[in-house]
């Protein structure tokens, strides 16, 4: 399926739907570059929490994630202990999955350790594809790439968790490492 005209007559990627959180995310954020360690850690964390769930669920809980994970400050999260994990597991405003919460703490600690090298942002950006895709419809779209597989392996080697190739591909799309919008979508080429 190619881009679809919305009720406003604007052609968008078909998953963006009608007015609401998904369309707002598509129009204002998805595929746009972000900068800074906390922005990268946030996107990496949210993509991990989304695994097995709808993206709209995560978007609707995003502000609570930001609050409870201290704006995705790596040092603050890295200092979390058992009491913090117990508190997070009781807070229904976020996804209460112990493995994903534990992975967030592990990833914050790995992010702090990665500062000794180039840092999380530069590290992730170093896996940008040399030949970015340009899909015309959703049937052509991939869920992994050689780059997302390599990024996944490299992050795991540096101690990160819940960073599989599909999750890393979604991260690459979300943060604009390449333009993920379909050819014909009004956002294509604007990132």
Keyword list:
mainly alpha, two-stranded antiparallel sheet, 191 residues, Endonuclease III, domain 1
Helix segment tally: 9
As for the CATH topology, it is Endonuclease III, domain 1
Number of strands: 2
Helix and strand content put the structural class at mainly alpha
Q: Can you identify the CATH superfamily?
A: Hypothetical protein, domain 2
Runs in which pLDDT lies below 50 for 5 or more consecutive residues are none
Give a verbal description of the structure:
With 191 residues, the protein is an all-alpha fold. The chain has one domain: Endonuclease III, domain 1. The chain is built from 9 helices and 2 strands, in the order ββααααααααα. It has helices spanning 21-28, 37-50, 55-68, 74-78, 82-90, 98-114, 120-125, 146-157, 165-174, and strands at 4-5, 11-12. Strands 1-2 form a two-stranded antiparallel ribbon. Strand 1 and strand 2 form a beta hairpin. It starts with a strand and ends in a 17-residue tail after the last helix.
């Amino acid at each position: 399926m190619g881009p679809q005209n919305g009720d406003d007559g604007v052609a968008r990627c078909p998953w963006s739907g009608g007015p609401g959180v998904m369309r707002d995310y598509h129009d204002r954020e998805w595929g746009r570059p972000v900068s800074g360690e906390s922005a990268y850690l946030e996107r990496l964390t949210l993509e991990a929490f989304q695994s097995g769930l709808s993206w709209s669920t995560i978007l609707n809980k995003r502000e609570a994630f930001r609050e409870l994970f201290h704006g995705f400050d790596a040092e603050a999260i890295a200092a979390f202990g058992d009491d913090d994990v117990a508190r997070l597991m009781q807070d229904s405003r976020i996804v209460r999955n112990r493995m994903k919460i534990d992975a967030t703490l592990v990833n914050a600690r790995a992010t702090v350790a990665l500062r000794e090298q180039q840092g999380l942002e530069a590290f992730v950006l170093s896996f940008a594809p040399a030949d970015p895709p340009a899909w015309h419809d959703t049937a052509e779209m991939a869920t992994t790439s050689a780059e997302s597989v390599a990024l996944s392996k490299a992050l795991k080697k540096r101690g990160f968790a819940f960073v599989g190739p599909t999750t890393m591909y979604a991260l690459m799309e979300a943060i604009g490492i390449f333009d993920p919008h379909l050819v014909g979508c009004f956002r294509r080429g604007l990132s």
